[in-house]
Amino acid sequence: MTTQIAIVLALLVIALVLFGLERIPLEVVSILLVMALVLTNTLTASEAFAGFGNDIVITIAGLFLLTGGLAKTGIIDEVGRRLHRTAGDSEFRIAALIMFAAALCAAVMKNTTTTAMFLPVVLGIAARRNISPSKLLMPLAFGAILGGTCTLIGTSTNLAVSGALPRYGIEPFTMFELTRVGVLIVCVGMLYMLLVGLRLLPTRKTSDSLTEQYHVRQYMTEVIVLDNSPLIDKSLAEARIGDEFDLTVLGILRGQDQYRIAPNPEEKIKADDLLLVQGRAEDILRVKSEAGIEIKPDFTLNDTLLEGKGTELFEAMVPRGSDFIGRTLKRLGVRRRHRVTVLAINRHGVDLLSKISRVRLRFGDVLLIQGTREQVETLATDGHILLLEEISRKQQRPYKQKWALLAFAVFLFFSLTHLVPLSIAVLIGVMILLATRSLRMSEIYEIIDWRLLILIACMISFGVAMEKTRADQYLADFIVQGTGHYGPIAVLAGFFLMTVALTQPMSNQAAALVMLPISVKTALALGLNPRTFAVTVTYAASCSFLTPLEPACVLVYTPGRYRFLDFLKVGSILTIAVFAIVIWLVPIFWPFK
């Protein structure tokens, strides 16, 4: 092993560990990886950043905008409303429709995007039909993941692998090349989920009361402002109750009036005011003499107490790409800037209630928010949160739907006829959206998932490093020596399983781009068709059913009240089924020789 190979493999191991830990954002790890390749003289600066000039990056960015046009004009929401009308009351029929709709939509857009768009719709159906969300949300996520295997544009993983193939002298995938096996994967996956998976899924009913569901009672109480309190005649802003005493005032009751819920920061505090505060009991006891307050006994809490005069309680999730990720509520100034109050955070089934202003938010956190619908929907429209109920249609442009559909149809026409490169085809579609104002220039930067583009570009550059140093050949020779005598089917199965193992803790795209050069070089060393192995790695990278770490699964994990083992129990059989289909059919459609 040469020094350069050792450096590349060491950096690969470090990157895999950091990807799995997720302590550092994936895009930052990717950039650090590329920087390390330059600093160790493995790549030149121009080679290291060549991935950013790859046309596949433009294609993926353009697809974000095309699918964004479908969302902004309300086409996806229209599919959801039709689901409402046709679902009926049968749990089996509802689950079947949800999986079919999710798979169909995910064939032309990211599975994460599909899951996020259908999540509020499915929660609404579950509430109206009195079905446990846990019976419907995992089928939604799995349907979206399965649908992504059907077309070239179904997932960014398919596109990333396709874009990397020419570097090994292999033709990129055509639009529907993956469809012949992908459709069977969807059909078998749906049959399994409907006939077996639904029986394995837990039935976990959620409480009708959000205050009970999030167990906020123990962190809320009423306090009386005493006559000698230093808070008297100060506004809520001047009193700095949050900064000084680590308490949040959610409401004020003065005299016989009703509660003033979510009071204005300029509201003056008066003697004998009854304040509804959020905070730990020990904090209230610690400061009660200093603040001149007394705890009111026999306090009872319900949703009604926290709502009134336009103020409501909402559940919202922190989506991927949100500005809230990695930042605390205190630093974000959510109450000051956005006029809403976060009462609780649910992280993977665990309610965080104590000192939540200091908790760093993560992708998938579900927030219990108090505020007006307008304020909360503004946060949702800006992409900061994903509201777990259908928002009003005022932010959509239904009158532009025909243009969004035309843009997508034009893109499909050019991509199928090969009259222009795929990157140009997608840009033509984007230009139609912009020219018809179906999509606005100001929305472009918020729709594109920049972190994913950075990850793919950097991993393409890492693939160049593996090829340049022959690290991929070194690993391929190692695999051939250990497994080559077992036959091509066994080697192919090994690559599928290795890719599935990698894609659980790290992103699908990174896993595919790490395994692609190794699988291609192994195929060449064995005298086999490298395309067979590339296709297998592509399918395997989308097989993320075993854990809730796949972004589509993260989205449904908390709303469905799932546990980690639920995914392992239901997803393991589905993974075996997909494995069997791929190992059986891929060598038939893409022969070894």
Summarize the structure.
With 593 residues, the chain is an alpha+beta fold. The chain is 57% helix and 8% strand.
How would you describe the overall organization of this protein?
By secondary structure, the protein is an alpha+beta fold. The protein has three domains: 3-205 and 421-589, no CATH class; 217-300, Regulator of K+ conductance, C-terminal domain (Alpha-Beta Plaits, 2-Layer Sandwich), CATH 3.30.70.1450; 311-395, Alpha-Beta Plaits (2-Layer Sandwich). It contains 27 helices and ten strands. It has helices at 3-21, 26-39, 45-48, 55-72, 75-86, 91-106, 111-129, 137-147, 156-164, 179-200, 210-213, 236-239, 241-245, 281-291, 329-332, 334-338, 373-381, 401-417, 422-435, 441-447, 450-469, 471-483, 488-503, 508-525, 530-541, 551-557, 564-589, and strands spanning 220-225, 248-253, 260-261, 274-278, 293-295, 311-317, 341-347, 350-352, 366-372, 386-387. The strands form two sheets. It has a five-stranded antiparallel β-sheet, covered by helices on one side. β7 (341-347) and β8 form a beta hairpin. It starts with a helix and ends with a helix.
